[in-house]
Amino acid sequence: MNRLHGNNLAVSLGGVTILKGVDFNLQAGEMLGLIGPNGAGKTTLLRLLAGLLPPLSGNLFWEGTDYLKQAPRERAKRLSYLAQSGTAHWPMSVERLVALGRLPHLSDWQQPGPTDEVLIEQTMAETDLTAFRTRQFNTLSGGERSRVLLARALVAEPDVLLADEPVAALDLAHQIEVMSLLQCYCQKGGAVVVVLHDLRLAAHYCHRLMLLVAGKTLAEGVPETVLTEANMAHAFGVRLNSRCTSITETLKLPWERNL
Questions:
Q1: Dihedral of alpha carbons 178, 133, 79, 81, sign
Q2: Is residue 82 a contact partner of residue 153, using CB atoms and an 8 Å limit?
Q3: How high is the mean pLDDT of the chain?
């Protein structure tokens, strides 16, 4: 089932066209990785999908209906956006900040109920945050903050999660943990669009990749068809080492190479 579908999407910022005629499709249960060099338009596309930027042209549909005409509260129930380098602007405990993810499902001034509390506890455990529940958000490290904001996004139980570089500030163990959480989320029927700079993680965890260059889609498909020597040379100006057998072998995580 198509969750999100867009055609001929363009975005202009400050009089400069950032996205240029991009087609987009996201299926339920799928993790789609957005890759490409800095300035390619990855974050801009993510913000457009989140409804934070208006399209200069093109159409965006949610399961066949005009997505951008839906009420913000309805969009918030269906979609969570995890911004790059997100933060909180006032002192708040980890538990309270995670609980904010339930707000789209509550009426005005309604407090989280028993079902919400169970989900909050479960999500904090899955993101390795239980021991931090009473800590103030602004006292945490960058990696710990990233996990708190991911938990807030996941606890909303959205149909689609948009994540902008969710592993950028994390150590290796927590990078794998976060990507595995996103993978499990997809296995339960959710869909993820994730911006990644680590092509090894993108190749290993994503069902499909979109390679953006200068606001346009250079390649799209399963990792093996996108991460080719020609595409890497075009997008990043790098070439495959002659001693390596293939770009996909080069990008395998070390423990995969003997599998």
A1: negative
A2: yes
A3: 87
Structure tokens at 161: 């999660």
- Token pair listed for 152: 């807030």
CA distance linking residue 223 with residue 211, whole number of Å = 10
Domains belonging to the chain, first-starting first, are 2-256 (3.40.50.300)
Contact 11, 44 (CB under 8 A): yes
The Cα 216–Cα 40 span in angstroms is 8
What tens digit of pLDDT does each residue of 225-244 get?
999 989 999 999 887 665 55
d(CA 217, CA 227): 13
- Which amino acid, residue 6? G
- β-pair type (65-66, 57-62): antiparallel
Per-residue pLDDT of 32-70, as tens digits, reads 999 999 999 999 999 999 888 989 999 898 888 888 788
Q: What is the mean pLDDT of residues 194-217?
A: 95
Q: pTM (2 decimals)? A: 0.85
